[in-house]
């Protein structure tokens, strides 16, 4: 059965400090209401690349405590600062995370050898498995099939979170590495990834839209492609409306409409305007209520 993971958001107070109760409420909603298979903690949706090392650790700890073993957890520890990535990986493992993930080092156009060394160093001495976080549009790092093969030589690297709309590469990866885990990360293209043998999906919008995504996966598995299309069509109207309304703060605003106190996004992300609030209310009423 394919798994569905929500990419956990980090709730902030209006002054951009971490809002612990907001994170706890979102974790609980995912477990109690979404019955989610797992949470991806500290990724893009978690606004992690804007957090200090201490704040990233705080988010892992809150998510770990609140989950209390009721869902799988993956801690995204990647950083352009290798020392920070190693420290975060060690911390997550000490907390009890069994799986970590890391975006490749970005910004400086590192060579593949440097990228491979980064992953090997993060994993050295740790009893943990890792999922590569491939998101070329944001990281600027595109890995080829041959480069994935070299990274997968490290037996602790068990798969990839694939946020990339290159479906040829996705198909080649599935064919070449039937035993590696592939979690797809573009929620609006789930329909196209399902036939390529993904093991599941990890995404931001599943925080609010898990029921529809699960129904889509179940319809795919039952062979009902008409239903798959219909469900993806509604999901895409919802996702595109969120994107138009500024996705990260809007995911939180829709949560607020549902009584989940998800807080704010961190500057330089926007704080909600009256227009964004009205937009989120409309999205909630149209697609979630
Ligand atoms: C850039 C980004 O946030 N991508 C999301 C998607 O879930 C994305 O928000 C969604 O498909 C809407 O475009 C995930 O792939 C990434 C993610 O979940 C994470 O790292 O937290």
From TrEMBL:
Q: Name one GO molecular function term.
A: N-acetylneuraminate lyase activity
Q: Which keywords appear in this protein's UniProt record, sorted alphabetically?
A: Lyase, Schiff base
Top-level class of the enzyme under EC nomenclature: lyase
Q: Which InterPro entries match?
A: Aldolase_TIM, DapA-like, Schiff_base-form_aldolases_AS, Schiff_base-form_aldolases_CS
Its EC number(s): 4.1.3.3
- Keyword Lyase found: yes
Q: Does the keyword section mention Lyase? A: yes
Q: Which domain of life is it from?
A: Bacteria
Alphabetical list of SMART domains matching this protein = DHDPS
Gene3D superfamilies in alphabetical order = Aldolase class I
| PANTHER family membership | N-ACETYLNEURAMINATE LYASE
What the record says about family reads: Belongs to the DapA family.
Protein's name in the database: N-acetylneuraminate lyase
């Amino acid at each position: 059965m394919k798994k569905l993971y929500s990419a956990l958001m980090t709730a902030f107070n209006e002054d951009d400090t971490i809002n612990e109760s907001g994170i706890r409420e979102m974790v609980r909603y995912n477990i109690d209401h979404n019955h989610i298979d797992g949470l991806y903690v500290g990724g893009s949706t978690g606004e992690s690349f804007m957090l200090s090392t201490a704040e990233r650790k705080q988010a892992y700890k809150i998510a770990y405590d609140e989950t209390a073993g009721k869902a799988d957890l993956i801690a995204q520890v990647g950083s352009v600062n290798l020392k920070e990535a190693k420290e975060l990986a060690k911390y997550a493992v000490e907390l009890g995370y069994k799986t970590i993930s890391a975006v490749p080092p970005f910004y400086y156009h590192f060579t593949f050898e440097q990228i491979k060394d980064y992953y090997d160093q993060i994993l050295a001495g740790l009893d943990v498995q890792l999922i590569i976080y491939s998101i070329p549009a944001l990281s600027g790092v595109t890995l080829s099939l041959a480069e994935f093969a070299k990274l997968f030589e490290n037996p602790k690297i068990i798969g990839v979170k694939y946020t990339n709309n290159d479906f040829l590469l996705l198909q080649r990866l599935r064919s070449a590495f039937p035993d590696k885990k592939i979690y797809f990360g573009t929620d609006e293209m789930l329909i196209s990834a399902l036939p390529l043998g993904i093991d599941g999906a990890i995404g931001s919008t599943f925080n609010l839209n898990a029921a529809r995504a699960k129904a889509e996966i179940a319809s795919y598995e039952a062979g009902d492609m008409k239903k798959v299309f219909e469900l993806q069509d509604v999901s895409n109207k919802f996702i595109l409306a969120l994107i138009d309304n500024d996705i990260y703060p809007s995911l939180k605003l829709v949560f607020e409409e549902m009584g989940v106190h998800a807080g704010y996004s961190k500057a330089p992300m926007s704080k909600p305007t009256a227009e964004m609030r009205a937009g989120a209310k409309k999205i909630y009423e149209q697609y979630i209520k």
